[in-house]
Amino acid sequence: MFEDFAKRVHDIGIIPVIAIQDAKKAVPLAKALVDGGIPAAEVTFRTDAAEEAIKAMAKAYPDMLVGAGTVLSVEKAEAAVKAGAKFIVSPGFDPEVVDWCIAHQVPVSPGLCTPSEIQQAIKRGLSVVKFFPAEASGGVAMLKNFAGPFGGVKFMPTGGISLANLADYAKCPNVLSVGGTWMVKADKINDEKWDEITQMCKDAQKALQGLTLVHVGLNNPNAEAMDKSVAQFEKLGMTVSKAGSSSTFMDGKIEIMNKPFYGTNGHLAYSCYDVDRTIGYLAQFGFHPIPESISKDAKGTKVVYFKEEVNGFAIHLVRA
Ligand code: 3PG
User: Fold this and answer.
1) Catalytic residue among 130, 135, 154, 255
2) What are the pLDDT digits (tens) for 179-202?
3) Which of 20, 45, 132 to mutate to test the pocket of ligand 1 (most atoms within 8 A of CB)?
4) Are 275 and 296 in contact (CB under 8 A)?
5) Does the active-site annotation cover 296?
6) Which bin fits 31, alpha (ψ -120 to 50), beta or left (φ > 0)?
């Protein structure tokens, strides 16, 4: 149920949880988020301005994933949807709110932190839920425990998440997105610190990807040239860590190809937590995947190379 919503949440990866006091600030706030690479917002019904803010954001940025949070009643869910909310979030599991959303085909992510509540969500056909309060309820360790019995459930953890620990959550295969208030604190919104909010969003997106250089690939015209290279790296103190059919790895850091491969000179391999999400992230910087380089498994894309080169090297992503 709600597959399109789940895909959108996954791809954006970070959902800011917003309590806005003044609806006039909603559009510049939305712009700051979009500019920071986070076209999503959970506008909470913790302030009177929530409904107006949702309306303004949804109108100004129709492609943005604007939803309502802290929805504590069916009445509020109705008001939120009427204002343009594309999804409903609540801090706890309220069967009435969940059933209303399902009946009206409105994506809903109820908050929960126990196996009993997860079972209630599964019973209703939900596969995306909010894990709240994440840190106080056991955080990553709890999510790892949920992964066993509830393999089909994806979590949107919030509560105690920040730039400092979001990568720990991003590494969990059952985490769809991370969320929180850290980049949209009330003082930043009230003081209209839009550039700071944009920068915090960019920093968060960067941390979410976890891009780390893992090896350098060097092209060669043929196997003899590769063997010559291997001998030279051995003189530099490196040893063969893997001899494959198309390349030889030295200390796992340098991959010496036995033929010309992607990139003029070779490739730079980066690991990341979720290759599919990072392909989307890098698209904004003009990186286009080479379709025939993509290899997938049940979890999604495992490896990809991009058309654009950096200093004569193709960029290559591998799953961390
Ligand atoms: C929420 O509703 O998800 C929380 O208020 C977010 O918690 P945080 O302020 O710790 O990010």
Assistant:
1) 130
2) 999 999 999 999 999 999 999 999
3) 132
4) no
5) no
6) alpha
